[in-house]
Amino acid sequence: MRIALDVMGGDNAPDAILSGALAAADLLGPAGADAAADDAHTVVLIGDRGIIEEGLEEGGLAGDPRYEIEATTEVIGMAESPTKALRGKSDSSIVRMAELGRGSARGGAGTVSADKACDAIISAGNTGACVAAAQMQLRRLPGVHRPGIAVVLPTFHGPVVVCDVGANPEPRAQHLHQYAHMASVYAERIIGVEDPKVSVMNIGGEEEKGTPLVRETNALCRGDEGLNYVGYVEGRELFEGKANVVVTEGFTGNVVLKLAEGLSAGIFKLIAHEIFETDPELAMKFEPVVKKIYAKHDYHEYGGAPLLGANGICMICHGSSEPRTIRNTIRNAIAYQKSGINEAIVERLGCSDHARGAGR
């Protein structure tokens, strides 16, 4: 498997991104392994050649065949307009990353030769630019109307998949209906939930509540026998085990995601502070337990989120990604390919062989 990594994207780039890539060496198989082997993987580091070469040298991995360099001269900033940036910065790391992914999705078509094509793309850069570049280059899986970003939120009742959290802030009901199917496949293949329960995010449980979009999505999901649909879910119920999959539009989903992350981090800091203030010795005894619990609720441990519906593997990481976030995202990309999620999504959406070929 070949994985294209945008080294220049993210609040902590390039150092954190490059460090995370090098920390993933143990996931890539032994150096010099047969490229055709199932456990042989290559990370293509995209960005400033000098910075990448220096990082490989410092990490003791210079010349390691598991790492390749794809040099670029431009960077798309986190605050830049995605459309303008993609048009004006053709030699940016995000654009090149998507082009490498396109080569794999289209069998080496376009400007990318088959030997350089990548099976997965990863970036912690400008989310809008990453999503737009992926849609332009990888395109969509056959039958998919609009890709969506799916994240896994840990709860006391098990993980919950939320889709969408930022790719599609103004969707149609048909898009959310498809998210329900795609996120269900993801929950089955990655989390191991059999016949996941699906809900639509709403401000109440009553049928008449919600925006027209929410009510129309509810009707589509309720009338779909292929979904294990259990109705609306409120924000507080997200953590109570009512559903394994929750669908919503990208604006609300992104707010929910960041609120949950911020609240989780704040609660653990408050608990640690109060215990230390009460009894420093007790705090030292509880420290391993608190760290263990926090790790289960730390988004860095979960890595990047997939752009479900893209005709390829696209992982979107937090702008604040740390080295371990990137390492875990590389792990996620490998697991995603092995699980056959994209093939399952195409089958789930009922695409014919003819449509599958036309979609590429």
From TrEMBL:
One Pfam short name: FA_synthesis
Subcellular location: Cytoplasm
Gene3D superfamilies tied to this protein: Isopropylmalate Dehydrogenase (3.40.718.10)
SUPFAM superfamilies tied to this protein: Isocitrate/Isopropylmalate dehydrogenase-like (SSF53659)
GO BP, one annotated term: phospholipid biosynthetic process
Main location: cytoplasm
Swiss-Prot/TrEMBL keywords: Acyltransferase, Cytoplasm, Lipid biosynthesis, Lipid metabolism, Phospholipid biosynthesis, Phospholipid metabolism, Transferase
One GO MF term: phosphate:acyl-[acyl carrier protein] acyltransferase activity
Superkingdom of the source species: Bacteria
Function summary: Catalyzes the reversible formation of acyl-phosphate (acyl-PO(4)) from acyl-[acyl-carrier-protein] (acyl-ACP). This enzyme utilizes acyl-ACP as fatty acyl donor, but not acyl-CoA.
NCBIfam families the UniProt entry points to: plsX (TIGR00182)
Self-association and partners: Homodimer. Probably interacts with PlsY.
Record protein name field: Phosphate acyltransferase
Annotated source species: Phycisphaera mikurensis (strain NBRC 102666 / KCTC 22515 / FYK2301M01)
